[in-house]
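2024-03-11 09:14:02 INFO worker-7 job=invfold-0412 stage=load source=structure_tokens
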């Protein structure tokens, strides 16, 4: 049967698709006869990479650089990526972090495909159904390959893009290479040319293992979280926003009329200096307060009723001594179990799923669910009252608990793991399965 135009019901042009709305996954599966709208050739290579600092690291590149090229498509377009592994001995894959692709395109070595060995190729094809900011990265030996650069940004523009005149759109991918903080591979202050009085959308992507704080010297708005528009974003002053490891935050800053620039600090070491060429920006002292996403923006329909859940899961993260692959150590646990004896979360297509996440492990975990977006219902018992806080990557601090919900609308076997990729190798990996 035919699926029609994927995800067009979201309303006004430019609106992101509401993730919780039941959608036809068939619309995401690219018709084999359909020609791709955007085709990208990517060559993965293991090589020495020279950082802007002059330091050389043993790393990975895509088409000769890290981060890899910015991929841009329009909502509803069919993206086709030809990946060739030139010389990466462990093999490589590409995972589309935050994009709810059909399961076979998810790029998880050992789950949805085999790693692509050196000398071989693999083609990914999917319809980009949700406008927003995403990234892609290898999902083979990821703690090593992602850390050393096998990654890049992906932007899905709204179906009909009508940026107001004077709006600039920039991507800022924050990554630590060998302990060196970079934005798009550059250290320190990165200039962004923008006209006085203009507005700038900054797509912050945190590809590190830990959370990142961002703040501007001037009021800013949070336009989107993990690829989903915030409803009714209001100006934020003297507060920093946390970008979860693996997560994305789209910010809007306005360039002052007086010809100066705005400094958008991304962590302690890197900043975007946004303004007319050659202008300087006043310092942006680090705020000690945090923007609380629980009550930011204004409420909007979720597209489903989380109080009528078909499944109720508990996901308690802990830590205890045990053996993993025969190695003794202190390992992460879910509901008391050590990998590979982890709980599987089994759902049926169409289920409304509620999950209570609790962290008693002594560390922070950026939990990432593949193939789905979930919404935060409450944190530490306090109900969310702002814009629906949709996420695919959620920063869960030690001692915190969250209630989240999602619609199981994308059949397959999906990883649900900590995006501190070191923690994932230490066993913090579970799966969501459809029966
Ligand atoms: Cu960004 Cu399973 O990963
Ligand atoms: Cu973790």
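2024-03-11 09:14:09 INFO worker-7 stage=emit residues=435
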């Amino acid at each position: 049967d035919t699926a029609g135009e994927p995800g067009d019901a979201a309303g006004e042009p430019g609106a992101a698709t509401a993730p919780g709305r039941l959608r036809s996954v068939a619309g995401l599966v690219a018709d084999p006869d359909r020609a791709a709208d955007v085709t990208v050739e990517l060559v993965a290579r293991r090589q020495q990479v020279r950082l802007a600092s002059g330091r050389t690291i043993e790393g990975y590149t895509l088409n000769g650089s890290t981060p890899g090229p910015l991929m841009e498509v329009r909502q509803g377009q069919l993206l086709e990526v030809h990946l060739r592994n030139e010389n990466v001995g462990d093999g490589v894959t590409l995972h589309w972090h935050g994009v709810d692709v059909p399961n076979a395109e998810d790029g998880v070595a050992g789950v949805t495909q085999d790693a692509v060995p050196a000398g071989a190729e693999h083609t990914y094809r999917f319809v980009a159904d949700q406008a927003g900011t995403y990234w892609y990265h290898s999902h083979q030996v990821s703690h090593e390959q992602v850390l050393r650069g096998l990654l890049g940004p992906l932007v899905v523009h709204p179906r009909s893009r009508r940026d107001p005149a004077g709006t600039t759109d920039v991507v800022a991918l924050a990554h630590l290479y060998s302990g060196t903080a970079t934005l798009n591979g550059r250290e320190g202050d990165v200039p962004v040319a923008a006209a006085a009085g203009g507005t700038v959308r900054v797509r912050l992507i945190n590809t590190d293992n830990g959370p990142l704080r961002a703040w501007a010297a001037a009021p800013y708005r949070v336009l989107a979280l993990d690829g989903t528009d915030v409803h009714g974003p209001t100006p934020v002053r003297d507060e920093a926003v946390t970008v979860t490891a693996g997560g994305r935050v789209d910010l809007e800053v306005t360039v002052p009329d007086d010809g100066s620039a705005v400094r958008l600090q991304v962590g302690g070491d890197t900043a975007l200096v946004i303004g007319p060429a050659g202008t300087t920006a006043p310092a942006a002292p680090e705020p000690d307060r945090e923007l609380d996403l629980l009550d930011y923006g204004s409420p909007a329909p979720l597209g489903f009723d989380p109080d009528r859940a078909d499944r109720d899961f508990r996901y308690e993260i802990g830590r205890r001594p045990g053996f993993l692959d025969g190695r003794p150590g202190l390992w992460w646990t879910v509901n008391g179990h050590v990998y590979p004896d982890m709980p599987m979360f089994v759902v049926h297509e169409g289920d409304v799923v509620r999950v209570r996440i609790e962290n008693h492990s002594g560390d922070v975990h950026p939990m990432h669910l593949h193939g789905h977006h979930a919404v935060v219902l409450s944190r530490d018992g306090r109900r969310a009252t702002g814009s629906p806080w949709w996420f695919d990557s959620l920063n869960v601090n030690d001692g915190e608990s969250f209630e989240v919900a999602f619609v199981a609308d994308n059949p397959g076997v999906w990883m649900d793991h900590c995006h501190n990729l070191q923690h994932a190798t230490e066993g913090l990996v579970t799966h969501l399965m459809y029966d």
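2024-03-11 09:14:09 INFO worker-7 stage=report msg="Residues 1-22 have pLDDT under 50 and may be disordered."
2024-03-11 09:14:10 INFO worker-7 job finished
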